[in-house]
Design brief:
By secondary structure, this protein is α/β, with parallel strands linked by helices. The chain has 21 helices and twelve strands. The protein has a six-stranded mixed beta sheet with strand order 6-9-10-3-11-12, with helices on both faces. The protein is elongated, with a radius of gyration of 35 Å.
Length: 594
């Protein structure tokens, strides 16, 4: 399976920017009522904006020219009231859009997180966690300005440009055309810039993702870094990633900033042409002073929203790559998912059967990890899986839990093909304990309750007592209410393993999977755990993977797995009498101990 590391840029399929924008804007359709209110407010504020130059024109050409002080005062009061309404309308519009865009971001982030939780182990095995976090947090946040400005900038400024253009053409066509003559140059320039800019912003987001992946990985493994005095190497890697990010950022921003220069150049040229044509071509005498001043205001009102629209376009070019990365994950089909028409798996007895099962990873289809494996387990039996590393032991239990799907053959539980039942109904009846003793931030009680969210305090304590975790928990300052970090810094490795074991036990599984579950527990503690779980294993089908063969001597069956096949099967006594692979493993282990 190919793995993407923090040193490699993520691969991403190319999609049309138009398709991405349309998909993003579909989220706005859930807020039709709010958008209508915002649009009505914008119509009012645009109307007031259009009226201001006309008020100035009337004040100069009518009231001031005729020395009508009363009319001028009345017009001034009217203008003040009108612009107070404008300010209040803009503030209300911005508030509504900010609220709407934040709610959409929450929706997108929830959809992304829920979808990621449905993806198979292959997705997580192939990329660092930090790169996934970059999409859930950074890329989603980047969409805020695009969403909020889509209504508050795009629509009002677009209609403002149209309205101003119409008014200018009605009042004086020659002056209007002088202001419009630079627009084609602006449009062509923007198109050229965005063509190159979009690629650079894509690269920057990938570099940000690499940096995020490294920081997450490095801090998660800080004990290893410090244990092997690898701080200097980590600092050098961090410095290299920072330089890569800086290089990408400078490349993206330098090109993106040229939008501003292009706008200022075309705006300035348009203003110059207005005055040149107004004075030299048409002549000042043919245009009233009020009209000329109104036109001066209108050209500012014409180019200002164009600048806003160009900046908004630049903002889209900058952040559309974030939307592409988000939709790239949302479009990733879960490797393991409920098929259409699946049924609920009823309460099971625990019979497990493999029918000619073969499995390989996606990019290693010609290399089977399991090859034509068949067996049948009766309810309540304890099965031990032994064999060399990489033989396929963990793959067997992963297929039972349906963390992966077999390429060939079927896995049956109580006669049900596990591909034909819902994942929830399957996994809720399983207890899975691995050598990864991951704990969540919170109390010890919360960590144990994670195995059964509605478990009572009595059930939690009973599970802890069953694995002999109760005594050490009660010695802690706050007992079961003791707060721990995700790494369980205050607990020993064995204690963390016991808590994880209690978490599995409280779920009351019908099928129990223990994958190197006691690997981190000392021999004395392991004896106590074995005593505690014997009663819990009764009546449950159990699969136990352990390198210490002394822990699985009481298993009903022992499967020796090697090169993707079960080469031997039987109980301890039978396999020892056969003097085959299991006998050699057992003898070799005890010789190494001696």
């Amino acid at each position: 399976m190919s793995v993407n590391t923090f040193k490699e840029d993520e691969e991403q399929k190319e999609v049309l920017k138009k398709e991405t924008l349309i998909r993003l804007y579909r989220y706005l359709l859930s807020y039709k009522k709010q958008i209508v209110i915002v649009l009505l407010i914008m119509v009012l504020t645009i109307g007031i904006t259009m009226a201001n130059p006309l008020i100035i024109e009337r004040a100069i050409d009518v009231h001031i020219a005729n020395k009508n002080l009363k009319g001028l005062v009345e017009l001034g009061i009217f203008a003040v009231v009108l612009n107070v309404i404008y300010v209040l309308g803009v503030k209300l519009r911005m508030y509504l859009m900010a609220k709407m865009s934040n709610e959409i971001l929450v929706t997108i982030r929830n959809e992304l997180y829920e979808h990621i939780q449905k993806l198979g182990f292959g997705f997580f095995d192939s990329r660092p966690t930090g790169k996934i976090l970059a999409r859930v947090i950074g890329d989603v946040n980047a969409l805020k300005s695009v969403l909020s400005n889509s209504v508050t900038t795009l629509i009002p400024d677009f209609f403002t440009v149209i309205a101003v253009a119409i008014i200018m053409m009605v009042k004086n066509m020659k002056l209007a055309l002088s202001a419009f003559i630079m627009l084609p140059f602006l449009i062509v320039g923007m198109y050229v810039i965005q063509t190159f800019s979009h690629k650079r912003w894509q690269i920057l987001r990938k570099k940000n993702s690499n940096l995020n992946a490294f920081v997450h990985e490095n801090l998660s493994g800080i004990r290893i870094v410090q244990s092997f005095t690898a701080e200097q190497e980590s600092a050098e890697n961090f410095d290299w990633l920072l330089k890569e990010q800086k290089k990408a950022y400078v490349g993206a921003v330098s090109l993106g900033d040229s939008f501003g220069s292009l706008i200022e150049l075309t705006w300035g040229a348009g203003g110059f042409l207005l005055y040149y044509i107004g004075i030299k071509v048409i002549g000042v005498g043919e245009i009233g002073i009020g009209t000329f001043m109104a036109f001066s205001t209108y050209i500012s009102m014409f180019w200002s929203p164009i600048r806003n629209l160009a900046n908004f376009y630049n903002n889209i070019v900058t952040n559309i790559s974030a939307a592409e990365r988000i939709f790239d994950i949302l479009d990733t089909e879960p490797e393991i998912m409920d098929q259409e028409g699946v049924e609920e798996l009823p309460d099971i007895k625990g019979e497990v059967e493999f029918e000619h099962v073969s499995f390989s990873y996606n990019d290693e289809s010609d290399k089977y990890v399991l090859d034509d494996v068949s067996f049948q387990i009766k309810p309540g039996e304890t099965i031990a899986l032994v064999g060399p590393t990489g033989a396929g032991k963990t793959t067997i239990v992963n297929l039972i839990s349906r963390f992966y799907d077999s390429k060939k053959g079927r896995v049956l539980i109580d006669g049900y093909d596990i591909k034909e039942v819902s994942l929830y109904s399957l996994r809720r009846q399983m207890g899975i304990m691995t050598q990864d003793n991951f704990l969540f931030s919170g109390t010890i009680k919360d960590n144990i309750r994670y195995g059964k969210l509605n478990a009572t305090d009595e059930e939690i304590i009973a599970a802890a007592k069953a694995v002999n975790a109760h005594d050490f928990i009660m010695k802690l300052e706050k007992g079961y209410d003791t707060e721990i970090s995700e790494r369980g810094a205050r607990l020993s490795i064995g204690q963390r393993q016991l808590l994880a074991f209690a978490r599995t036990m409280v779920s009351e599984p019908r099928i129990l999977i223990l994958d190197e579950a006691t690997s981190s527990i000392d021999t004395h503690t392991e004896i106590l755990v074995q005593q505690g779980i014997e009663e819990l294993l009764k009546g449950r089908t159990s699969f136990v993977i352990a390198h210490r063969l002394s822990t699985i001597k009481k298993a009903d069956k022992i499967f020796v797995v090697d090169k993707g096949k079960i080469c031997e099967a039987g109980n301890h006594e039978e396999l020892m009498e056969r003097k085959g692979a299991y006998y050699e493993l057992y003898q070799a282990q005890f010789r190494s101990i001696a």
